[in-house]
Every structure is written in structure tokens, then in C-alpha cells.
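Bench notes, afternoon.
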Amino acid sequence: MNPLIPLDEWIKDLRREFHREPELSYTEYRTQERIMSVLGELGIGSEKIADTGVTADIRGMGPGPCIAIRSDMDALAVTEKLTLSNKEYISGNKGVMHACGHDGHMAILLGTARLLKEQQDSFNGTVRLIFQPAEEVPPGGARRVISQGGLEGVDALIGLHIFGDVEAGVLNIRPGPCMASSNRFRLHIFGKGGHHSNPGFCIDPILIGSEFITNLYSELPMQVGAESFVLGIGILSSGTQFNRTPDELEMDGSFRTFDDNDSMQIESTMRGILDRLVSGHSKDAFSGLPGYELDVEPGYPVLMNDETFARAAIKVLRENNFKVNEAPDRIFGAEDFALYMQEVPGIFAILGTRNPEKGILEGNHSSSFDIDEDILITGVRAFHAIVTDFLKHPGEYISPR
């Protein structure tokens, strides 16, 4: 690829190349190879990290702080549908698709790298590029990047995500909690099986499970607040015979919150309901039944944008005439970028791509998801504006600790 072609065309070509060759989490080997090749063409040395990831440093003309920029790399197990816009770059890997914008994220970061490399004699300090694998699959690639030293020497970090339900070109930057934690729960209810004709000799785990779901959905809004969580049941399994009460029921679901205390309250409410149901359905003839096992597995934590950094970034973006929304709704989606924010200050922005005039209407993870490619240069310019201002004025972005 010729790096001398105009930047906006160059990044569009890269995005389409990545889109045609998507790879699932932890298998991004071709993607890794291509990223390192492009960086090499730009004169930027790079290293592998987290097996299929890439890191690279662009050093300025003198010493200074280090700011990192992160892009994710992985695609989804989705079969892409042919549309009017994607026929030139539809996925060539059957059953795998960049349905969440990560192809755009990589193109934006490479475009930012090209711009910064061309200007490296005009700033002091270092810019670290982090191409991270496996964002889509908990526990996520961020943990491995951190454990393998990806943030060593880094003073701040920025990233973005393309969203299909936000107007094209708009940057949402919410100070404080902006994306939710994700938590998976697995519930196993033990009853007493038997024939439907003899209910007195049975303890029905399906009945207990249905009462659990009903009580949970009615009590949680009062305990936590309806606007503070979402919860869903994804798997419900019990029984093998139409006329028999089964012995067990298995349930698998998830909940998301913006506060760890709310997550603990949800688990506590679950256990309280289950304890009441076990007591209410017990029978003297069946000692120890009914019973339950509940396992709650935390996923990605709440993503917290550093408030000082966010205010400084919003200020410089507005000075450069970007469309910025600093009070968007919080997002119940979860991101392992949150793990980086527990280590260093920074922000995670949302870059809108919805454009009805171009037919860009689908949401993330849709089999028809696509992006308005004109936003790619917006992402590059936004990263460039924040990075160069941070390197000049780090004290405005980082509060003393």
C-alpha cells in the first residue's frame, strides 16, 4: 500500500482490507502481520504482544510524557449479509465479520500513526500504539496486554469505539462512568422429580425457577433503581419428558451496572429470593430439598473516563471544531478498555457513524452493520488533536496523585 496517497483514501482502503479478512478473538494472526507490515512501511518499528497483538512507539524529538492509543482487532462469529454498500469489501471469511467497527478502529489508529510519524520532529515525548486482540471475548485481551508490560511507561491512554446509533461524526465523551460492568450468573436449582400425577411427591424446579424470575424482575427496580441496571436470562434448561417433573433446572444470564455496589446488591437480592423459595417449597419428606447453587462471575468492570482528562480533551476538540457531546447517556455495553482505565488516566470516546442519507442505519453486531467511511478521518484528527495537546500540556490532563 502506497503511504503517499491522501490520508483519507489510505485509511478507507485499510479499513476495507481489514473488513474483507476478519479474524476471531485470539486468532488475529493475519491481521497482526498486516498491521506490522503497514507500520514498517511507515518507518515505525513494532513488536508482538498478547500473542496476536501489536505495540509500537513513535518517539518525538525530545523527552516527554507517553500517551498510548488503543485499537481492538477481533471480529465476530457473524455471517455478513450482502448490501448495496459492502459488495466491494464483504467478508471473505465465511461466518466471520467485522460487525462492531474494529476494522475502522485499526484503520483510524494506523492513520493516526502515519500523521504522527510525519510530524515526530514537532513534538516531545512518546506515543504508544496498542493493537489489542480479543476484546469481544471475556476475560479479554487487555489483561494480557497489561500483564505483558503494554502500559509500562505510559502516562495516559485514549481509545474510541464506532457506534451505529450515534450520528455520524459526533464524538460522545462522558466524564466518569460511561460504560457498564458485565456480570454472568449461573443458577442450578435442585428439586425432586416424579410423575405429574403425584405432585405431592415432587418438588418442581421449573416452578421455583419461574417464581425466581418473576420475583427478581419485580424486586430489583426497587432495590437498585430501574435506570441503574439491565438483566436478562439467556439460557433456561430443564426436563426431558413431557409428563414428568424434572429433578433440576439450569439458568444462565447476565446483568450490567455502573456501580460495584449495585452489582453486589443484585447478587444479594438473588440469594435472598432463592433462600425464601427454598424455604417455601420444602417438604418434610425430602430433607435438603429443594436447593440451589448460584455462581456470579464478574466480567469487564465499569469503564470510568478520567474527569480531568475528559474535560481537557473536550476543550481541545471543541477548539478544533469537532462535534462533541459531553453528556450522552451511559451505555450498558461493556468494554475491556475499562481495565486500562484502572491503571492509567484517560478517556474512551464513542464515534458516531449513523447516516440515513447513506443508508448507514444498522446497529453494532448486526449482520448488515457498516460504517460511514467519512468518519475515519474524523477519528484520526480527533486522536491527533488530543495527543499533540496532551504532549504539550500534560498537566492539564492529569491530576496530581
